[in-house]
Structure formats: C-alpha cells, structure tokens
Amino acid sequence: ERFNLEKVGTDIEPLTVIKAVCNHALFIIHDGKNNDSTTTVNSSSVIFADIDFQGCGTNFCDVNGGIFFNKETLTINKSIISGGHASELGGAIYNAQYAIFSGSDLLFKHNTANDGAAIYSEHTAIFISSSLFTSNTALNSIVTVANQTSPVRQSDYPSIINSTISGNTGTAL
Questions:
Q1: Helix (H) or strand (E) holding 23
Q2: Contacts of 85 by beta carbon, 8 Å cutoff, 6+ apart
Q3: Based on the number of CB atoms within 10 Å of its own CB, is 64 exposed (0-12), middle (13-18) or buried (19 or more)?
C-alpha cells in the first residue's frame, strides 16, 4: 500500500503502527517556550520515519490537529498519516504559527476537518515532497496555509513538490 507498489506479500516491509485510542491528538510537539517572529530557528525539532500514524477513527480526535499539533519543527518521512479527525482545523496535522513542518514520501488518507483535512498551517513554513493526498475530506481545503502576512524567513514560502492530491472531497489547496 505504501510507496513501492510492485512489492507484494512477504516483500512488503511492515511499518511501526502508532494508533490513537482516545479523543485527543496523538502528538503535541511543543517545548513549552513561545515562538515568535523574531525566532530564527525553532528551538525544538522532532523527526519521525517509517511509521503508520493512525488517528482515533471516526470520532473527532481533537478540535485542531487530529494526529499532530505542532508548535516546533516537525519532520516526518516515509510514513502513513491516516484517520485523523479534527472538528475544526488540521485533520491530520495542525501547524501552529511560526512552526515548521516538512515531510517526504508521505501518504495522507482518510483525514477529516472543516479546513485542512490533511494539513492546516497558520504560517507558510510547510515543505512536502513525493507524497500522496487521497480520500481526505474537508468542507474547505485538503491543505491550507492561512498566513496573512509575509513569511518570517525568506525560506519559509510553502512548497509541495512531486506530489499528488487526488480523490479527495474539498478543494486541493
């Protein structure tokens, strides 16, 4: 199911599964310090790879950020992010103001929110490559970058490259 579709049966390498069992975000990435526009680099960084992140199922996991509520620098690679449900913003990932999210080789599927079914970002610092967004549902968009001002750093312009957004309900971006 993941990325190398020609692999079958015992050739498929299993992923570690982390599944939510309650109605809250699976991870809150926050070091307890306030980040602001004068911060040149967020002070804390978390990196995940080769994990199947599963949200709480059909109930709402949280108001914002069904699987991840990020206030720092979060990187996820070669992973599945599915089943995240937020009653408001960021079904899978809520990226707070001045936070940074980057990822590659990701599969976002079956995530739901009013806005940003897969990702809702308060700021422009999202960088995604070689990923698939499918079967996500939003009243508004699948990926939302809600920045109302210019990026803090020149490098903070949002980027989604070599990725597919297909088979979702709601607008793509």
A1: none
A2: 55, 56, 57, 58, 59, 60, 61, 66, 91, 111, 112, 113
A3: buried
Bridge partners, 69 (sequence order): 28, 94
Q: String of b and e for 96-129 (b: at least 16 CB within 10 Å)?
A: bebbbbbbbbbbbbbbbbbbbbbbbbbbbbbbbe
Residue 29: both structure tokens together = 């990435």
- pTM of this prediction? 0.85
Residues in the chain: 173
Q: Note the pLDDT tens digit of each residue in 74-117.
A: 999 999 999 999 999 999 999 998 899 999 999 999 999 999 99
Q: What residue type is assigned to position 93 of the chain? A: I
pLDDT digit string, tens, across residues 115-166:
999 999 998 789 999 999 999 999 999 998 876 555 555 556 789 999 999 9
